[in-house]
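Chapter review: from sequence to fold.
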Amino acid sequence: MPVKSFRQAKLRLAGVLDDQRRVSLARELAQRVVAAARPAPTFVVCDDGEVADWAVVNRASVLYAPGVGLSPAVEAGVAYLSQHGFSLAVVAHSDLPLAENLAAFGEEGEITLAPDGRLDGTNVLAVPTTIGFHFSYGPRSFDRHLVEAQRLGVPYKVVRDVKLSTDIDVPGDLAVLVEGGSR
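The token string follows.
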């Protein structure tokens, strides 16, 4: 699970949430995703000491990747998992308020993608650790990740699940928190 500095997270919400509430929300969302990953071994890829401390408190292993950016950090994390005997990596972003049972996401030997509700980003992605998948997060990442899956020639599937497609990126996304997850 890649987690950026809580102080730098959710900056697009700064117009509707003060800094303290934004930081608190980033922590709360990350906590939900870590809980959804249980009982699987959970790893947090980060470049921030506060996030690393938070991960340890939440019984997640820390993979420290300073200054490389999101996609290279995730690639480094997947490479680490491969080197340590894991055959499948599930990469879930830390802003999924409805995520459940991430430990059961994906299957050995295939790529599984769960896009966001806008079919723009890739909220959850399971990949075999040894195939050299090139991550490419940012706007339109879902399209790029589909192309990468096709390039690699590995079986893949797309999972359209409201619980995995719901993320918190812009002010309008906050309604799901007020609605209590009834989306």
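Two observations follow directly from the output. The chain has one domain: 11-168. The chain has a mean pLDDT of 94.
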